[in-house]
Amino acid sequence: MGKKSRFRVSRRAFIHAAAGTTALAALSPLPVPLLAAEPPRWPVGCRDSHLQHAGTADCWSAARRLGAEVLEVNVAPSLACEALFHPSRKYSLATEADLATLETDLAGSGCRIAAFMMANHLDERLEEELEWARRLVKAARRLGVGVIRIDVVPRKLSGDSFLPFAIEACKKLCELAADTPIRYGVENHGKITNDPAFLEKLFDGVGSDKLGLTLDVANFYWWGHPLSEVYALYERFAPRAVHTHCKSIRYPEDKRNVKREMGWEYGKYNCPIYEGDIDFKRVIEILRRAGYRGDLCVEDESLGKLEKAGRAEALKKQIRYLKDLQI
């Protein structure tokens, strides 16, 4: 037989250690293994298009003024980042020099890019879209951006022909990110992808974990799903979520829990998240249970109702609100 391990624990030492653990458990309202565990806290930010409302000279000081830790950056097919602004330069992902400039400015900004955003026209120009995505995946990998938000919206096709097209198009997109940590987040957006049946068929048909969801919290409600049913939809799709859009609606009480016409009176009733019908504390709990590891991104489509001077304060308040709900 080999030598006995010098790390062997005696029976008496084991009993003393076990007794100490039992005593600690008795003093604590939580099981001992949970004492060190903390709920995940996700970074909070906004879409880059909101930065203009901060009234600053550049987008980075705008992010700081609003309290944004992360940004969703809209990228044009040319790879220009048109909503990022600076008094002496424009931002793009098109060249090595462009990437180096953005990388340097990001490093000193105090925030980071959580997601790139593509406004896709897949069924109108698939080859161009794939080339755009290929270049964007490369840039995202260079800058450490883990998510690309995409549109899967019919613009040319209609009826039953769109689903099989969308599945094949998304398979091709996923292939472009196959050897990277990057995932796509198809947004539940518009008529088609707010339909849970379509979303399920799309995810099942593509069959790749590279295709996730940008969970737009208000869009299921906008589509017409009653408020009493949207939380079940969040629970159903939260395991797919890689990114979020956080916005809300405040409907009249008699319209909240009935099936409404798609988009019914949205312009009239959309509002900041702290005024809306959707319980974001409950949304956060659902995302936590699902193991979500992304960000919370404010997308306030009600800002146009406010005076210009009040828009920055509304954005700042919403970002702070989402931070505080995680405490």
Describe the structure in your own words.
By secondary structure, this protein is of the alpha/beta class. It has an 8-stranded parallel beta sheet. A two-stranded antiparallel sheet has the order 8-9. The chain starts with 10 loop residues before the first helix and ends with a helix. The N terminus is likely disordered.
Radius of gyration equals: 23 Å
CATH topological fold name: TIM Barrel
**SSE class:** alpha/beta
Low-confidence stretches: 1-35
Question: Sheet bearing the most strands, described?
Answer: 8 strands, parallel
| CATH class category label | Alpha Beta
Count of individual beta strands: 10
Number of domains: 1
Count up the helices: 12
Q: Going across the major beta sheet, what is the strand order?
A: 7-6-5-4-3-2-1-10
Order of helices and strands: HEHEHEHEHEHEHHEEHHEHEH
The amount of beta strand, in percent, is 5-15%
Shape estimate: globular
The whole-number mean of residue pLDDT values reads 91
Portion in helices? 40-55%
- Termini separation comes to 55 Å
CATH architecture: Alpha-Beta Barrel
CATH homology superfamily: Divalent-metal-dependent TIM barrel enzymes
Brief overview:
The chain has 327 residues and is an alpha/beta fold. It has helices spanning 11-27, 59-66, 96-107, 126-143, 162-176, 196-206, 219-223, 227-237, 253-256, 266-269, 280-289, 308-325, and strands at 44-47, 70-74, 112-117, 147-150, 183-187, 211-216, 241-245, 248-249, 270-271, 296-298.
